[in-house]
């Protein structure tokens, strides 16, 4: 956001068309838009703007126009989503929210202010004072029943009682009891709505399509369609009692393997490498012989339509495995040769064989369930198919060793082994509900430790353990973050704790607010940390002044359509050298 920025709502034709389509299909329309406070919160100040809240009055005027358009088309309820309310919201922003909704509520139909991903403990009282017609809150994470005692008598409460972020079926009896208590405590009567905790975009569409999933797991699954059924079943239970609901539930049972559990308990005691960074760095300089300012890439090369189609044909049985493997080998050979020709110092094999950086590992470890149709939106038009952690996780067979070894034999230059880190695997999977994330991540870390040991002992001298989800998994409430970051660092330490000190461990932290995880980056004890810096004009590097380990700042933004000039990249490297010592860059 920049000073003097103006907001033009346009003619709203796209919105009118969507409302008309929904009404033509016979639906009662509840429109949904992102709220103005969250929209401002998610941006950054540029070009002399000191506080983006200065732009709020103009933004609210644009929202008034959109709300008026919806009112004119007969929309009775508008869901205005303000997930910022689930954070530890500063007082200044809380005051801005009140000012914004004072204006919006006078110019619009009934507003349902919606927060999600966690119960808004820190500002629930503030939300209750807003001049809106209803409030939606998450009942599934950090819910405080006692907070409802002061809920307004003239406001609808939409209870996010069915968890929209995991794939396990709802315990209808227990949830109905919570809703009954909430209705009594807030004296809601007919002002209680039953809903999912958040949008169902986070889960796949229909568990009934997963015929290949084991019957020990399938009855416990609940995707979007099943969750909608659970919401309907809860309504029936609340209005007619248990006899009115024919939908059963099944909670995932604990399948605990003592060997796995004891292993993770032992590893919690010594989750670190044997030598400190300074001693390791000396050994690695001697072993690797890298030049000053060594160049490399983060790792994965584009998944071309050709290889996506080859995987489809392989699954259908239309091509032989030998043909598929031959195509992968040829592509890796091409990738390795081109990197060497271009003068790269540390090569990667491109991860051509991996359709997804998490599912690939889930397919090769015990404890994961892989779906056929379990797609969810990741961002924009990109979708992912997260694996499901249904049992205890353990190592079964080497996952990356074959292709890393093959690529290493194609060159005399150092070749990076590529492993997805434990926190990212857990955060980008559907985890069990009967175990803590800490316990699951340590199980995954133990399995990955064996993989990393195999890579190191086979002669792979540099191993990158990717943790792009480290910041993404950070709890919304600051009070809960220290514990999360501690076990994330421990899990990473477990994954690389069995390697020789001569093996250089890299990690990749992408598109993160580094200030939130800076200490953890040090605690993880990687030898080199790669970060996204080009998109932010190298500004994240300012936080790394005094960081005593290797840093790999990205100088080429691979997600940008703009091709940077050599001069621009050289300027970025010069800026980095002003902060990071050359021996660490």
Describe the structure.
With 585 residues, this protein is an alpha/beta fold. The protein has 3 domains: 137 residues, Alpha-Beta Barrel (TIM Barrel); 112 residues, no CATH class; 212 residues, TIM Barrel (Alpha-Beta Barrel). It contains 18 helices and 15 strands. The strands form 4 sheets. A 6-stranded parallel beta sheet has the order 1-2-3-4-5-6. It has a 5-stranded parallel beta sheet with strand order 11-12-13-14-15. Helix 4 links the parallel strand 2 and strand 3. Helix 3 runs parallel beside helix 4 and helix 6 crosses helix 7. It is globular. About 1% of the residues have low confidence.
Secondary-structure blueprint:
Layout: H1 13-24, E1 30-34, H2 36-41, H3 56-72, E2 77-81, H4 91-104, E3 110-114, H5 124-128, E4 134-138, E5 156-162, H6 172-185, E6 192-196, H7 224-240, H8 258-267, H9 277-288, H10 305-316, H11 321-342, H12 359-362, E7 365-369, E8 376-379, E9 382-384, E10 388-395, H13 401-408, E11 416-420, H14 422-427, H15 437-457, E12 462-466, H16 481-496, E13 504-509, H17 518-523, E14 528-531, E15 550-553, H18 566-577
Parallel strand pairs: 1-2, 2-3, 3-4, 4-5, 5-6, 11-12, 12-13, 13-14, 14-15
Antiparallel strand pairs: 7-10, 8-9
